[in-house]
Write a structure and sequence with these properties.
The complex is a heterotrimer of chains A (406), B (480) and C (180). Chain A is mainly α and 406 residues long. Chain A has 15 helices and no strands. The radius of gyration of chain A is 22 Å and the shape is globular. The two termini of chain A are 27 Å apart. Chain C is built from 5 helices and 6 strands, in the order E-H-E-H-H-E-E-H-E-H-E. Classes of the chains: A mainly alpha (406), B mainly alpha (480), C alpha+beta (180). At the B-C interface, helix 1, helix 5, helix 6, helix 7 and helix 15 of B face strand 2, helix 2, helix 3 and helix 4 of C.
């Protein structure tokens, strides 16, 4: 008995959440305060946040193959299920890019990616306040067709490889001859990681860094990379504990949770490290076109900015330092949920100052869209989880994973 | 009890028993050195002495004996400093980070890698001290009262962070290394035939007797130290990178520097470990311990780190252009530098660090000792050029064209560098003769899981080999 | 009958574990085990407490952190404030980002060295101490378990347990000492 059932009760809950999201969308579309930038900025925010969970899970899945990791086999269906959200999240981001491109083409300033406004790079008109000479120099890279082409290529290849990995993994469980499929997956995972390593940087620049188009940081891609990885691991922990509570996945014991908790701990510390150095170097040199990014956040988004940093670094650092907390599901759920929320705040701080300006906005629309995306995410992940047995039967490292001991 | 999957190759060959491990690791310590050892030792000492001469000359005459100038005020000295510090990082990576990841292949190379770390940090420390010009005033870097002759040290300066980072790194690495050595010294002590050896290793082994409580504490201390050393190794090279990144010199001021320096350090350090163990396993007859599989795994780590560094180069190159700042388009990774008078240094970096290591994607090459050995040296040269490029080619085109200049080292600078290489190898050769080259006590804990006496996979594993597993699986399910 | 220490020498860690478990099942305590490497789980079988050395480490780390914070604020804020590069050092808040590296290093320095020194002192290890393992083979490939017998019956039980679990050598050493 290793089949997860997506009960009708939880199904209706996700439908309810999605309905709230649709209502919020409708409300946003007709409300003139929201319908422009704020409408799309929130879709981008949720798109990024949930896509990053799925991307982190995808990277984690590929990593287990290339690193020849044995311990993770018993939870592999969990992160595999999380990857299924990838196409939906990417579509949401893509919709924002297209909407900005259309708005920018009509020379509207009410768009998420301000650089797409056609007057911003119009040398003939040079509209004061809109024209940006820096953008003209970047035009070779930052132009609408190229960004759309890049996004399509990266997103479709990611989805293709990730789905292939999951498909083969499930297939190999059902057939007796699973070793060839495993070796095939090792190769595919390697290819995916190489491609992902490079394109993740590009997409981080295009989707997030280009919101504040005059600001740049060479660390930014790595910073987002760690964020994906971490939220992917936390989602895996939460999903595993949820499935275990249903009485399934008995083979997962506190040793596996210890390993996952260790990942949560170390990636949180790594996150703090990357955040700190990016901030510290710009703070230290105090060069105007670099500190402007942090000034906007510290002066106008002070509360979310500092709360997010302190909680994201200190809470896991202190609580998860000991062995016992990493092996205790209660602590893992508590800390996992806290960091998940504060990483959402982090994503809010990436997106909002560059799109909505210096006044933070948070209202029914934001909450509605967030709930809608949570509903969609849970629906996609749980319904895919319910399609295959959660316990793995055939895997070359299964024996190691069952006897994993820390 | 841990069980390895049958598709994993055994890590230790030669059907080793516990006693055989003892014999093999004690042999170099108890035997006599051969003529190759003496030849290498002699060469290394000569180089070291030559370096000491150059250092004395520098101290006596001042750093005017170096070819630094007003524009290029950091040259070979800081390049070598960063290079040596970077080499040290692989030792801590292998012993601490891989310990946390429970990677068993680390156990036959961690001892020598840690020794390498310690000697490399010693070599590195020479350069900033000499660069002070008046090394007898080196105590100024310590937080001493104003009345002592200096002001309080400036804690906002990355150079002072370096003092704290490197002294912490050095001393903690020594402690970590020595604690691991204690049980191995005890092993040599207990089988010593000569009186002098008995006395010496009794002293070295601190009276270790291997009681259960001592082992319990020992294991706890090892894992906690590994946990501490992991952020420490990140912090050290990040702080070294801050020497550059907190500056307003274009090319230096880049946020990616900390992780990029750490990755580069592991890249070059792993290359140096490979250089050392490929020779060491042959000379000390430890080929069944440091197997081709170990070499391949290290090559994989090196390839990964090289790729991370490559992506960072790409980000640097791209964002220098993306910033739209004409000044930025002259950084060390830019077309203007590739075309400039230091173009040769730029291409040396790209070829050694990015192009040549790509051959490691082939499994056959990863398992080929000769190519690996050559490549490990190539990568070390490439990583030296990385630091040279960062320092010199970011400085030589100053803000005022009248200050633009060129730099090549004087014989004194080259001499000091050669001297540190001599010192490094002198210490390493002494280490290989007097200290157990492999952490035998720790190795014995995993012998049953990784040795081929206990763990013998079928030649070509097939899916059907796993049939037995289903029974165990069901049993485990029942237990839970 | 005077006290007798039974020395059971094994050549395999799994056999040692079996032997130790057998002795504990018979209701005897184990004085000491000497082994060439940490035998997994033997501390639990012997009934040793968990070591608290990592708690010491945490306390040393906190000490290092506080010392560094006190040192830097005393030197740069209270004793001799200087304006360096337009960054006045007049409050901890304005300095903290550039103090993080030194704070971190001091924490690590004190935690690591404090723990190492505590370990060496608690286990009484330093140059000049003479080793206490009764048999030199226990740093090579043998495992020695010491148990105490107070009567003929104890001796028989302990020797029997050792032989039954595959000990390669069993010795009885008379002892007047309360400890081995």
């Amino acid at each position: 008995m290793s089949q997860y059932t997506f009960t009708s009760k939880s199904r209706y809950t996700t439908f309810g959440l999605m309905a709230i999201g649709v209502l919020a969308l409708a409300y946003g579309a007709i409300n003139h305060d929201i319908s422009g930038t704020r409408f799309w900025a929130n879709i981008l925010l949720e798109g990024l946040f949930f896509t990053f969970i799925a991307l982190g899970a995808s990277f984690f899945m590929a990593l287990q193959y290339v690193a020849q990791a044995g311990w993770s086999v018993v939870v592999k269906r969990m992160y595999e299920a999380l990857t299924t959200f990838l196409p939906f999240g990417l579509l949401a981001i893509f919709a924002v890019v297209i909407a900005s491109a259309i708005g920018g083409h009509a020379n509207s300033a009410d768009i998420v990616y301000k650089w797409m406004q056609s007057d911003a790079t119009d040398i003939a008109k040079k509209v004061p306040g809109v024209f940006d000479e820096m953008l003209v120099k970047k035009h070779l890279y930052l132009n609408v067709p190229f960004v759309i082409i890049r996004t399509i290529i990266c997103a479709s290849l990611w989805v293709y490889w990730v789905r292939l990995l999951r498909k083969r993994s499930i297939e190999s469980d059902l057939t007796g001859d699973f070793l060839p499929l495993h070796y095939k997956n090792v190769k595919t995972a390697g290819l995916f990681i190489i491609f992902f390593g490079i394109t993740e940087q590009l997409m981080a620049w295009d989707w997030v860094m280009a919101i504040d188009v005059d600001w740049h940081s060479t660390l930014f891609g790595w910073y987002l990379f760690d964020d994906m990885w971490l939220t992917g691991v936390i989602a895996t922990i939460l999903l595993t504990l949820h499935v275990r509570r249903r009485g399934l996945l008995k083979e997962v014991n506190e040793n596996h949770m210890h390993n996952l908790g260790l990942w949560m701990f170390s990636l949180s510390v790594l996150w703090g490290y990357l955040w700190f150095f990016q901030f510290m170097f710009y703070w230290y040199t105090n060069i105007p076109d670099e500190v402007v990014y942090f000034q906007a956040r510290i002066d106008h988004y002070r509360l979310p900015f500092w709360i997010m940093f302190c909680i994201n670094l200190l809470v896991p650092l202190i609580v998860l330092m000991t062995r016992d907390t990493k092996r205790n599901p209660r602590y893992l759920i508590l800390i996992g949920c806290i960091i998940m929320v504060t990483h959402w705040i982090d994503a809010y701080v990436w997106v909002m100052p560059g799109t909505l300006g210096l006044t933070p906005k948070f209202g029914f629309y934001e909450i509605g869209i967030l709930l809608g995306f949570i509903g969609l995410f849970l629906y996609v992940v749980l319904s895919n989880l319910a399609k295959v047995p959660v316990s793995v039967k055939n895997h070359p490292y299964l024996e190691e994973s069952l006897h994993h001991h820390l | 009890m841990h069980q390895d999957s049958i598709i994993r190759e055994p890590l230790l060959l030669g059907k080793k028993t516990y006693h055989q491990v003892t014999e093999d690791i004690a042999r170099p310590v108890e035997g006599k050195a051969n003529k190759y050892w003496w030849a290498l030792f002699f060469l290394a000492v000569i180089a070291w002495l030559w370096g000491i001469g150059c250092m004395a000359y520098t101290v006596g005459r001042g750093i005017g004996t170096w070819n630094l100038n007003r524009t290029i005020n950091w040259g070979w000295d800081i390049t070598n400093f960063v290079w040596w510090i970077g080499i040290g990082h692989a030792g801590t990576l292998i012993s601490a980070v891989l310990c946390l990841f429970r990677q068993r292949w680390r156990l036959t190379i961690n001892r020598s890698a840690e020794a390498m770390t310690i000697f490399a940090v010693m070599c590195a420390a020479i350069f900033p001290v000499l660069h002070m010009g008046r090394p007898w005033l080196a105590y100024f870097v310590f937080p001493l009262p104003n009345q002592f002759g200096s002001l309080w040290a400036n804690f906002n300066s990355p150079l002072l962070w370096d003092v704290f980072a490197i002294s912490t790194y050095f001393s903690v690495s020594i402690v970590f290394w020595y604690l691991g050595l204690i049980p191995d010294f005890a092993m040599i002590r207990d089988r010593a035939k000569t009186k002098s050896r008995k006395i010496l290793y009794t002293l070295f082994s601190f009276g270790w007797s291997g009681r259960a409580k001592d082992w319990q504490r020992f294991e706890e201390v090892t894992i906690v130290l590994a946990g501490i050393c992991t952020p420490l190794v990140f912090s050290v090279h990040s702080i070294v990178s801050s020497d550059f990144a907190t500056g307003v010199v274009r090319g230096w001021h880049s946020t990616v520097y900390p992780p990029y320096f750490v990755a580069g350090a592991i890249f070059s350090g792993m290359a140096m470990v490979l250089t050392l163990v490929i020779i060491g396993r042959k000379v000390l007859d430890l080929e069944e311990y440091i197997t081709i599989q170990h070499i391949e795994t290290m090559n994989k780590v090196m390839l990964t780190m090289g790729s991370v560094v490559g992506i960072a180069y790409f980000a640097e190159f791209f964002q220098a252009w993306y910033s739209g700042d004409p000044n930025e388009s002259f950084i060390y990774l830019s077309w203007n530098n590739a075309k400039g008078v230091y173009g040769w240094a730029f291409w040396a970096l790209i070829i050694c660090n990015n192009l040549l290591p790509q051959v490691l994607w082939h499994k056959k090459i990863r398992r080929n000792l000769y190519i690996t050995f050559i490549l490990s040296i190539v990568i070390n040269i490439g990583m030296w050029f990385e630091r040279f490029d960062i320092i010199v080619t970011d400085l030589y085109r100053d803000y005022i064209p009248s200050t633009w200049t060129y730099y090549s080292p004087s014989w004194v600078e080259v001499g000091i560098f050669v001297g540190t290489i001599g010192m490094f190898f002198t210490f390493f050769l002494l280490f290989a003769r007097w200290f157990p080259f492999i952490a035998q006590a720790e190795l014995k804990t995993t012998l049953k899981a990784t040795g081929d006496l206990f763990h013998n996979p079928p030649r070509q594993p097939k899916s059907t080999d796993f049939v037995a597993d289903h029974g165990t699986h069901a049993a485990v399910e029942n237990v839970h | 009958m005077s006290k007798v220490i039974v020395h059971a020498l094994y050549d395999d860690d799994d056999k040692l574990r079996d032997g130790a478990r057998r002795v504990r099942e018979l209701g005897y305590g184990i004085n000491e085990v000497f082994s060439p490497f940490p035998v997994h789980g033997i501390d639990k079988i012997m009934g040793l407490n968990r070591t608290r050395i990592s708690i010491c480490c945490f306390i040393y780390g906190c000490t290092g952190f506080s010392l560094a914070l006190w040192m830097m604020s005393y030197m740069l804020i209270y004793d001799w404030p200087i304006d360096i590069g337009g960054k006045p050092n007049f409050s901890i808040y304005h300095n903290i980002p550039s103090w993080i590296p030194v704070l971190f290093e001091s924490t690590v320095f004190c935690a690591a060295h404090g723990m190492a020194i505590t370990f060496l002192l608690r286990s009484w290890l330093f140059p000049g101490v003479s080793p206490k393992n009764p048999d030199p083979r226990t740093t090579d490939d043998h495992f020695l378990m010491l148990t105490t017998a107070y009567s003929e019956q104890d001796v028989n039980a302990l020797v029997g347990a050792a032989n039954a679990t595959g000990a390669v050598e069993v010795k009885q050493v008379a002892s007047n000492d309360s400890h081995h």
